[in-house]
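FAQ

Q: What does a record look like?
A: Structure on top, sequence underneath. For example:
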């Protein structure tokens, strides 16, 4: 029997490299298989699951990123890698042998447990002396390369460094890196060529060819150095230092700017608070005077006088810390006392200015095809014409069309609105349709179906309730967002123009502005001028009625006239107001506060 040879060098250099978990970099402990065939320790996978989405039954492999569907009992229920378990146990057993006692490589061709003396490199089997002779008797195997174990150990020792430095694929750890993807500039293995780097989309080269290409390109680059006196290493070091200095410089000045902006924010808010309290005190004083005089009619008693003085005492105490308004500098009683707004400016530091009075000014013009208008919470304007939806966005002082979309779910819309979820509500007779932000149909309903009425106008309130008006019936139906009917309200004379504000329906009829609450009670009826062309409400509830060449601004409570806004455009027939306070009309142009005024959009037909 030939003398056995220790297997320790072979185990340490060939096998042990494959018995380490890629996560903890130690020998496998209860290895589990993933669907991608990669294995990891049970504990490592349990910790990995905690770092990924713990609410799903999926686990992503850290090497190849493929997902494994976990069984009901989670990571514990994954199939164990019994081959790795057996190998780890065997290696552990060999390491526990008494010092000086060596394990031996056994012959793999016979059952006599003879010690192996050689290995066939073609068959990849160990043979004892007798089996080696028998193996070489076969003519088909005469050309097989056979090495003694001593020769194998000698070769292993002389080539230890190269063997230990074999590069493995990060995605497929058992595969060697043998190719180079010129498209991705990445070393890959053979498995990669059929998965992530398929030809002809990827240009592949063997390592020698890739190296020659690399060498050629390097030679070209080095030729530049020969005509230059610069030290490239020194230049890179300088660049690195300047890069860090530049980053520090950017950070420092950013903080300086942010600090100025924060101070500007505080100043503006303090100014706004001062303006608000000053105006509110004036209005509160007038309201108190009005209430006081209303109690002085008729016979006065000590009880009445005491009540009035108590009210005065409470009023003074409530406003004792407010701005002191000198009588000779008091503001006149105008509707501007109810107004306060913010106008942003194009400035590196300043955020904007506060507006004390309303002042509408023309800003710019935008060309787009539109029959209906509305706006999103972001300030983007949506203009719809037939099945085409145009989205306009503000850039500086201009509005530009950022997208044009053909929507297959709408045909000939006659009215649109946007709810608080930025869903587009479209009256596309005979249906009311709700589209999401991607303009996909969420749901629809047919209002007036039971009565056979045809809708003529539509509005959406701050609670996403949908109001639909019918000219033929002189009615408005109020619906939940899903289309279910809440109630029907009487609205004689309603036609095309309707809006909602403060739990009220507002519409125009025969030179009148009519307010109807959600219980069907007519609250206000105000006379308006000329033949109106549309109406809308802003976030404060104020009303804007559109006429040829101008817009009438009315108060939210009683529809009292506030001002006329001249637009000098006779052919307008649609108006809406954005949440940012921009008035938008069709023909379509834009009024904006270039001189500190309020925004007004005015869009011309393309």
């Amino acid at each position: 029997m030939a003398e056995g040879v220790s297997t320790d060098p072979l185990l340490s250099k060939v096998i042990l490299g494959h018995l380490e978990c890629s996560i903890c970099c130690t020998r496998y402990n209860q290895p589990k298989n993933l669907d991608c065939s990669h294995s990891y320790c049970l504990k490592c996978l349990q910790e990995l699951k905690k770092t990924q989405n713990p609410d799903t039954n999926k686990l992503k492999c850290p090497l190849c990123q493929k997902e494994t569907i976990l069984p009901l009992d989670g990571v514990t229920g994954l199939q164990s890698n019994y081959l790795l378990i057996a190998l780890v146990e065997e290696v552990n057993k060999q390491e526990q042998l008494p010092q000086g006692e060596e394990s031996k490589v056994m012959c793999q061709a016979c059952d006599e447990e003879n010690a192996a003396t050689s290995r066939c490199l073609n068959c990849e089997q160990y043979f004892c002396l007798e089996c080696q002779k028998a193996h070489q008797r076969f003519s088909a195997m005469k050309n097989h390369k056979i090495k003694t174990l001593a020769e194998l150990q000698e070769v292993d020792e002389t080539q230890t460094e190269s063997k230990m430095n074999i590069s493995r694929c990060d995605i497929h750890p058992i595969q060697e890196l043998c190719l180079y993807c010129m498209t991705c500039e990445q070393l890959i293995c053979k498995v990669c060529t059929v998965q992530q780097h398929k030809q002809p989309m990827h240009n592949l080269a063997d390592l020698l060819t890739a190296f020659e290409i690399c060498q050629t390109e390097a030679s070209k680059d080095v030729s530049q150095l020969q005509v230059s006196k610069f030290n490239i290493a020194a230049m890179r070091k300088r660049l690195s230092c300047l890069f860090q200095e530049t980053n520090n410089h950017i950070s420092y000045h950013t903080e300086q700017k942010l600090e100025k902006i924060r101070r500007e924010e505080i100043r503006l808010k303090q100014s706004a608070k001062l303006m608000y309290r000053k105006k509110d005190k004036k209005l509160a004083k007038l309201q108190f005077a009005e209430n006081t005089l209303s109690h002085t009619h008729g016979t006065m008693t000590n009880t009445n006088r005491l009540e009035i003085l108590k009210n005065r005492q409470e009023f003074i105490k409530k406003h004792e810390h407010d701005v002191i308004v000198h009588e000779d500098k008091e503001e006149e009683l105008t509707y501007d006392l109810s107004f306060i707004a913010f106008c942003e400016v194009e400035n590196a530091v300043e955020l904007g200015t506060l507006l004390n009075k309303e002042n509408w000014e023309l800003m710019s013009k935008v060309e787009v095809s539109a029959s209906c208008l509305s706006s999103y919470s972001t300030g983007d304007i949506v203009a719809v014409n037939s099945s085409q939806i145009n989205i306009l966005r503000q850039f500086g002082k201009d509005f530009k069309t950022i997208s044009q979309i053909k929507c297959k779910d709408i045909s000939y819309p006659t009215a649109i609105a946007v709810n608080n979820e930025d869903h587009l509500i479209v009256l596309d007779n005979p249906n009311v349709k709700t589209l999401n932000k991607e303009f996909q149909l969420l749901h629809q309903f047919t209002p007036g179906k039971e009565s056979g009425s045809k809708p003529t106008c539509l509005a959406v309130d701050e609670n996403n309730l949908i109001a639909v008006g019918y000219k033929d019936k002189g009615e408005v139906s109020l619906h939940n967002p899903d289309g279910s009917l809440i109630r029907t309200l009487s609205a004689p004379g309603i036609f095309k123009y309707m809006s909602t504000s403060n739990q009220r329906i507002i519409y125009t009829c025969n030179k009148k502005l009519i307010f109807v609450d959600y219980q069907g009670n007519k609250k206000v009826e105000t006379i308006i001028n000329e033949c109106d062309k549309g109406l809308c409400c802003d976030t404060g509830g104020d009303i804007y009625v559109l006429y040829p060449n101008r817009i009438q601004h009315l108060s939210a409570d009683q529809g009292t006239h506030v001002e006329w806004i001249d637009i000098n455009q006779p052919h307008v027939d649609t108006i809406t107001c954005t949440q940012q306070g921009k008035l938008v009309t069709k023909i379509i142009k834009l009024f904006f506060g270039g001189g500190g005024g309020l925004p007004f959009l005015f869009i011309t037909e393309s």
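Q: Is there anything notable about this one?
A: The longest helix spans residues 232-294.
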